[in-house]
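Format notes (please read before filing issues)

Several people have asked whether sequences and structure tokens are stored in separate files. They are not. Every record keeps both together, in the order shown below: the sequence lines, then the token lines. Line labels are part of the format and must not be stripped during preprocessing.
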Amino acid sequence: MKRILVSLTVIFCLCLVANAQQRYTWKQYGLSFSVPANFKVSVNTAESFEAENANIHLSIEVMDYDGIDPEDLGTALGQMAVELNMKNAEIGELALTTLQGAYIEGKVDGVSVCLVLLCDTDSNIALVSSITYADGYGQQATNIANSFSIK
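Then the structure lines:
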């Protein structure tokens, strides 16, 4: 019984380490989001942000806000998916508190991709994010997409 308890404790601790998250804020826009603790930032400029680990790549870019109506986020994402020739696409709304957003998931050239379009109507900021991920990491990509907020 003691061995089983020790084994379960070790497995639990390993799961916590594997799922450890860190909160990051892209200071130029006050955009905050959660990513796995082992993410490394490769680009951090006023126009774009990129970070990744071995299984997930996150990129965020500023978009021209003119012409993007928060009610039409899904339509705009659908057009992006068509332009990228995305296959097996599924669209949905994000559960965000300080932003309006939508996402579309599918495959582009065999790679799993989650495209996210975000609007902050208070500051007229529009951002597009691309989260590419390896098989089995779809939930982590969804967690990142649902973690966006403006501070």
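For reference, the curators noted about this record: The CA atoms of residues 62 and 127 lie 5 Å apart. The first strand starts at residue 21 and ends at 26.
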